[in-house]
Fold this protein.
Amino acid sequence: MRNIVALAIFTWIIALIYFMNNIMYVQKKERRDGRNETWILYIAEGLDEGMIDKLRAALEGIEELKEQNVKLKSLAEEEKKEHTENVRLLNEILHQKKREGKLSEWKEKEREGKEKEEKNEKMKSQLYSSDHEKLRKMLDDRIIEAFFYAKKYVGDNKTDRKSVANHLENQLLSLIGLSYQFSEVDQAEEWRRKSLANLTQHIQTTIDRIQNPSNCSKAKILVCNLDKQCGFGCQLHHVAYCFVVAFGEGRTLVMEGDGKEWRYSHNGWTSTFLPVTSCTVKDVIAGSGPVNWESDRSARVVSLPIVDSLRILPSYLPLSFPSSISDQLIKFHTNPPAFFIAQFLWYLMRSNEELQKQLNEAKEKISFSQGPIVGVQIRRTDKVGTEAAFHSLEEYMEWTENKNNMIIVQIYFKVEESRQGKKVKRRIFIATDDPSVFKEAKEKYPSYEIFGDEGNANTAQLDRRYTDSSLLGVITDIQLLSHCSHLVCTFSSQVNPFFHNPYPLSNLLSGVSNGIRTGSSSAEYERK
């Protein structure tokens, strides 16, 4: 048995050696018609033909797998290269876009710079419009024409003086009208209105902030006695004087007794106007009363005596106005001190709801929107023979008409006709404390359309003056006068300074500066 096993092992080894030595693989690759062919040469003898076919098929499969592997590697390499190239191209495009964006931004700035430069050059070559230059040359020509006419004929005894005077008057009226036109060309008037509106808003906001402190018990306060023994205009100017001093020192203005005791109304200040502050006397004064302003100006709460009794005048009184707004005021307004004090008068006279309703009803009765109206304020009664002389209706009307030719030719309306280039209807609004003026005006000037409330004049009589109805009448007259295009008055009446800037906020904010013709005992002059 052992011999048989040994013999079998020996036989297997001999067969294996024989098989290894007699089989040779010769692999040859040739390219024919674009294809690889694999050849297997069988050298060994005695192998089964089927086994050789299987071996050949296996080797061909392996070769095919190798070729596929090479192709896959090649495709992967190409894809990797393509991806790398795409990333490179994308980065290059993004970089280019970024450079183009910066370039475009730079070009835009350069373009804007050139446009600005061209605009500046154009402005240098054409600073004003054609209308501006036409009016300027026309104004120059007419001034020169009037000068040479006056030089030739004034003082010439051979010439009819009346004819010369009429001719010169017409020339000068034409010049005034042309000057008005010149002030409006290139939207200059609108520019001035908006500039003054912005300035007004700034001042009103500042006043309102000071008048409504966050803590009344710690705020600096100035207490003012409302009930000075004088008329409405005088009282308002007194409170305005307190107000300006308080504003200048950064103090909140508080009326003595919170304005509840007022000669003009038993219901106090708020019967017609809004409260001037959110603080009350009780809020601001604890223990002892206010210190006299002249005694200790550093005290938190001070009282200010009437201006007539002051030994030391505050530097804030008119004609002063803040240096911080002086350039703008001088630039845009013809009377900066009047404009500034009017800001405080307006704040004081802000109407409560009931008063505003009555004022609106009064305004609706007068057609202000249908053309210019000249306001005539005639103050008489207690003023005559004490503070001022008597002025006849003719003296006031002299400034609305010229009677040299015995025909009614209103100066102001003639100027308006020159400015507008057309006929202007003659209309006036009369405010007075003398009811007889209305009848006199209608009889002497029948061609006028005359507005005014005789009832208001009746309430202004001395025996009815300090009543609620009289207070409403004077406030209504001030309101309506402020809407007029031109004002004729005397400065002996203390309400007239209100009109350097009209009382209504709509006009005040727009910076309207009405023409005001004032007359005193010996002189007339205009504030425009």
About this structure: The radius of gyration is 51 Å. Residues 22-46, 382-388, 399-409, 500-528 have pLDDT under 50 and may be disordered.
